[in-house]
Amino acid sequence: MARIVMKFGGTSVADLDRIKNVARHVKREVDAGHEVAVVVSAMSGKTNELVGWVQGTPKVVGANSPFYDAREYDAVVASGEQVTCGLLAIALQAMDINARSWQGWQIPIRTDNAHGAARILEIDGADIIKRMGEGQVAVVAGFQGLGPDNRIATLGRGGSDTSAVAIAAAVKADRCDIYTDVDGVYTTDPRIVPQARRLKKVAFEEMLEMASLGAKVLQVRSVELAMVHKVRTFVRSSFEDPDAPGMGDLLNPPGTLICDEDEIVEQEVVTGIAYAKDEAQISLRRLADRPGVSAAIFGPLAESHINVDMIVQNISEDGSKTDMTFTVPSGDVEKAIKVLGENKEKIGYDVVQNESGLVKVSVIGIGMRSHAGVAATAFKALAEKGINIKAITTSEIKISILIDGPYAELAVRTLHSCYGLDKN
Ligand code: ASP
Ligand code: MG
Fold this sequence. Notes:
alpha/beta, Carbamate kinase, VC0802-like, 2 domains, eight-stranded mixed beta sheet, 18 strands, 25% strand, binds aspartic acid, binds magnesium ion
């Protein structure tokens, strides 16, 4: 017997038939004798609709958000999950399974006060554990918890992944299964590279890079949480026949296991290629080369909530002037230029230049730590295709390369095959 948390995303609960199908997946694990908690998202499209309704209401004067009262935003958008967890409990009961729904506040899942993007602080798993022990399935609304003000708080878009991992940690589950509309994590986006392979295992750190670099399988925060609490997390498909052979395999269900690197015996040097579109590059020319300049640039950008990614500074030739280049999401360029303009005197630069429509491709693998020449392989392969590199950053397990947008697909394909990731 094991204790399993099963999470189903929006497409998996998109209508009543799919909810019934989810119930069959749950029944399979219950029939195998496992203790089960289920976490659900809202039906697909529902949260967007709810957010749209809130944004369509008049601005609230004096609220802590410029557009609307974030606490009421949460009251509205959390309702999608309330519906699906009730419906799934009913579908389970119809199959003679003892089940009940749980709202975040009923458990409770305690969060901080950041309405709309709250962090989970604490989950009291005692009640759920007790009832699971008595054979009851807990069907939990994802995406929501209870803030210190005793009001509903939501965890940010895609947050029900994080709910699931947090609950798995709280009830000390053996496994957290994230059911979604893809059947696992691939070496790269299969829509771009048909030869992409499904990975059997990915280390937490690699998945963190893949998730934050645009492989949109899991919310980044959920992977962070899984890494901290060492929650073994499977990404798998809800669209496979719930009763197909192997689906109930306890150790190796079909999908990708995200786990501690110690569990990965045959480590490849490179695990995957990720890409992030719509990057923009901003360069400040002829900056004074003195202490405090970086702080003068990036402090105000951070205060304006602009997410700066790659940062490259030149070594100055004469020790007096230098250049600084960094990237931001394309949508933030205008705002960033404005902030830099407002701080021009304090920073002390000559001109600011920018270019949008760039793409960042990244080569990821924990095997890089112990292998030399991984970056050189990428540069050579890209050069052979005539792809120009605009900027490079590296970490222990990642090489990121900034290129012109139109070359994105060619670059991803080239890198995928140069590290031998193509299937067959
Ligand atoms: N329903 C929420 C959203 O669409 C949370 C989730 O699905 O993970 O963002
Ligand atoms: Mg999701």
